[in-house]
Amino acid sequence: MKKSVTRRNFVKLAGLSAAAMPALGNAKGVVDRLLAKEEYKLSPGVVRISWLEKERVGNHFGTAFGVPWPRGQVQHESEFSLRTAEGRVFPLQTWSTAMWDDGSLKWTGHALPAGLPKSKFYEVVSGKSAKVDSPIVVSRSGSAILVDTGLIKAEIPSEGSNLVSKVWRNGRLSLVDGCLVGSRSESPEPGAGVESFNSELKSVEIEQEGPIRCVLKLEGMHREESGREWLPFTLRLYFFSGSDEIKVSHTFVFDGDENEDFLSGLGLRFSVPMTDQLYDRHVRFSGDGEGLWSEAVLGITGLRRQAPDEIMNAQIDGKPLPDIRTWPEIVSSRLHWVPTWGDFSLFQPNSNGFSLRKRTKAGHAWINADQGKRSQGFGYVGGVSGGVAFGMRDFWKLHPTQLDVRNANTDMSEVTLWIYSPQAGPMDLRFYHDGLGMEMEGVVPGVGFEGVEPSMPETAYAKQLDGVNITYEDYEPGFGTPHGVARSSDFQLKITSAVPERKDCAAWAQESFTPPQLVPYPEEIYKARVFGTMWGLPNPTSVNLKMVEKRLDWSLNYYADQVEQRHWYGFWDYGDIMHTYDEFRHVWRYDVGGFAWDNSELSSDMWLWFMFLRSGDPTAFRMAEAMNRHNRDVDIYHLGRFAGFGSRHNVMHWGCSAKQLRISTCMNRRFHYFLTTDERTGDVLKEVTEADRMLDALNPLRKLPGEPIKGECIMSVGTDYGAIASNWFTAWERTGDPKYREWLEGSMRDIGGSELGFFNLTFKYDPETKKLTPAEGVEPRASHLSVMFGLPTICSEMIQNFDVPEFEAAWLRYCQLIGASEEVLEKELGPNFKRPPFPDAHCRIVAYAAAQTDDEELAATAAQTFVDVQWKNRMPVLSTERYEGPDVLNPIDEARWVTTNGTSQWGLAAIQVSALIPEALSSAK
Q1: In what residue span(s) does the PcRGLX/YetA-like central beta-sandwich domain sit (predicted)?
Q2: 269-315: per-residue pLDDT in tens?
């Protein structure tokens, strides 16, 4: 029988002080035994890590990663080394990325030089760091910065259009004039005027300086021929000791007018000096998988008169050819009649096909060379004495992209890695419909569909709210703008001393397309408690717990397959997933208002991150990482009217008028930052620290009847406060600045000290003082959204880190009452209180209260609710139905009952309930 919380038990819970409460998670006996295994019994100050994709071990040219530490274990100024499973020790460059409240390290970032050997696992060990054999040297020469890795030397100017002036290897000039280029069209229609632009550097900062890794941060604008400056960019250059590679991270922000500025090309360009004989020059492009297209600028194979096989084979292999005077005269005397090929282009217009063509020079026809499906986005141009290999991350996934080589048959070839291909046509970012009459006051009489009259709302807001009821789209004129959204691209440039081997090209292509990543073992992250205490390791020790694990795995794999089958790729789209399915068309609702792109609605990214944390699954990591990279850039405004806000789900990522802190919150991105040390993600974490100030400029409740609008700044206790608290918490752990802790503890006292606590649905808020004031004369209310955007997670972390008893009591009261009987609810909250829907999402906070207070009856309530809703009431079938032929455009696998909201919320509940109350869940019927 399903148990409910009694009045007696509620009083017992509400009266507990923080000091009397047992530590969360004491019931995890099985998991604790797992951690006690010999393989996990590491000494303090040691964390075990491994490559994310084990089969890719060792293929890197310098890398960075994050490591978690339990509270109080490692002090702030500690040094570290890396130890292989075989006991070899390597140097590490270390920096702090987060601290505990006692000043000890919570997260550290580490950089490794090139050349790490293969090993089953590695261990980060505190203690004096091993010596770096060839440390990076950073110096200044006039107005330029010089970086010497030991293999290459680069010159970075402090002003002008170039971002990298020169790069040498072994004294040979290999790369010059690295810059950004692009073009803007006046209209998306054919024949519109086009204006070119180049990068204009504004500042250069040495963000990190050796001995293993150097990071330079460059900021600037793009300057058109007319002098207009727009599209602000941030570009980082990464150098590693002993490496011949430069890693490049580029972000631009769209600050134009989508009705006038149509981006028609954007790319990274540099030139490569060509000094070898024409027949010793080579161009290569990657294709599918390990496929490689490789040809010489002046080919000597296939001619009517041929050189000896050993000479032709040498050219095919990219080796130096013997002195031409040793060749047969019948060939050598006629080479001037053989065309040389100067221009090469690989164009990837979509995720399913690329074309490759070449020509002798401008003014002559392009010749089709070949086609393929998915290029890895890697290329090479140079000669037998050296050149430059180049690659773009997620090349075909971020289509339309392009790789161009020009003038390879001259003294200076030019390479352009097109982030947005000029062959694709101008980018059209205008809103996808005309407002449908929702922008006007009143309505036009007589406008309806097939004799059905409209509902005649009196105001535009009323019409917009009515529109939500049919398409789930929250429309408002002027709000569906891309002004302020961003996009990031990563590149790798490798300076070579010879034409690379074919097998090396395949390996480098894979590295640039999906950079290898070192990650901590799940057990290490769990033990450190760095992401709170509401999750645990997989624990399939009962029938119910096995069912949880089976469905979690099935859901992850289903969405991974949907990304591929539904082609969720593209310049603005890759990384996001769709919101809701249309079983009649057998497609996701890509064109129906708020049912289209998910924009991390209901914490889909948090679900994916916790899937990775507990399992180490590379599929979960790569999906979460792609979502993070998309959401942090595209779904958030980085400048302009909505800076600091994110956009709710829509057909266009920025289309919804609900601009929300729940989308831009650090809560969804701190996982990626701490695990990878990614500086762009770190920028966005910092960017939104005080996004709460935007609530004073744009009231998120402005459209709801009866809500205060004018002259008051309103904060929702669920969606807004959870986001804001996460922003402050992340800033506090990253910087240690006491003001963030003061803001957090002050807000905790404001909520905990109010009569209704978390049953105050909204608070008046002062962005200057960070003061929350409960509304007067209101009845207790609860919204289902309050727990769906990470509030339970951040509350548990704040309770874990701060001693504010009234906040803990208020949160426990909320968690406990949500699972209470109707009798208790009426007695405690009055007869008008309505329990929020979605008990499956709420059972995890009931489980939290049960674990915190060691209440078996409350745990049984949470567990039984989870089982009843998820398995008995909905009966999900963990299988798909195949559709192909004329029913669909492409063969697909369909599970009609799946929604992204449901998957995310069920996934989080499953992870958290199974971790908090495994015994109760195992016993539920």
Answers
A1: 136-509
A2: 999 999 999 999 999 999 999 999 999 999 999 999 999 999 999 99
d(C-alpha 657, C-alpha 476), whole Å? 5
- Give CA–CA dist 899/906, Å, rounded: 10
pLDDT tens column, 228-260 = 999 999 999 999 999 999 999 999 999 999 999
Name the residue among 680, 644, 678 with its Cα closest to residue 664.
644
**In sequence order, what are the residues at sequence separation of 6 or more whose Cβ sits closer than 8 angstroms to the Cβ of residue 627?**
575, 576, 577, 600, 604, 605, 608
Which burial class, exposed, middle or buried, applies to 674 when counting CB atoms under 10 A from its CB (0-12, 13-18, 19+)? buried
Which tokens in the block code for residue 76? 């702030």
- Separation CA 275–CA 44 (nearest Å): 56
Q: Please state, in angstroms and rounded to a whole number, the distance separating the CA atoms of residues 54 and 58.
A: 9
Nearby residues of 867 by Cβ (< 8 Å), 6 or more positions away: 544, 921, 924, 925
pTM here is 0.94
Local structure of residue 339 (DSSP, 8 states): P
List residues bridging with 587 in a β-sheet: 582
**CA-wise closest residue to 772 among 781, 783, 761, 782:** 761
* 553: Cα within 13 Å, side-chain hemisphere: 11
Nearest-angstrom CA–CA distance, 260 and 266: 17
The candidate with the shortest Cα–Cα distance to 100, out of 127, 68, 125, is: 68
Rounded CA-CA distance 271/179 in Å is: 10
Local structure of 862: helix, strand or coil? helix
DSSP character for 161?
S
The tokens of 860 are what?
A: 């049984």
Closest CA to 506 of 118, 59, 113: 59
φ, ψ at 792 (rounded to 5°): -55, -35
Q: Are 272 and 387 in contact (CB under 8 A)?
A: yes
In the three-class reduction of DSSP (H, G, I as helix; E, B as strand; rest coil), residue 417 is classed as strand
Under DSSP, the state recorded for 567 is: T
Side-chain-facing half-sphere of 213: CA atoms under 13 Å: 24
Q: In which order are the strands placed within the sheet that holds 89-91? A: 89-91, 80-84, 122-126, 46-51, 518-520
Neighbours of 358 (CB within 10 A): 21
Closest listed residue to residue 222, CA positions, set 8, 419, 459, 503: 419
Phi, psi of 119 (to 5 degrees): -160, 150
3-state secondary structure of 200: strand
| Residue whose C-alpha is closest to residue 249's, from 239, 262, 260, 257 | 239
* pLDDT tens profile 114-148: 888 889 999 999 998 888 988 999 999 888 999 99
Query: How far apart are the C-alpha atoms of 449 and 463, rounded to whole Å?
Result: 16
Which stretches within 514-617 are classed as H helix?
522-528, 543-565, 604-615
SS3 574: coil
CB 565 within 8 Å of CB 892: yes
CB-neighbour burial class of residue 711 (10 A; exposed 0-12, middle 13-18, buried 19+): exposed
Angle between helices 7-14 and 822-829 (to 10 degrees): 50
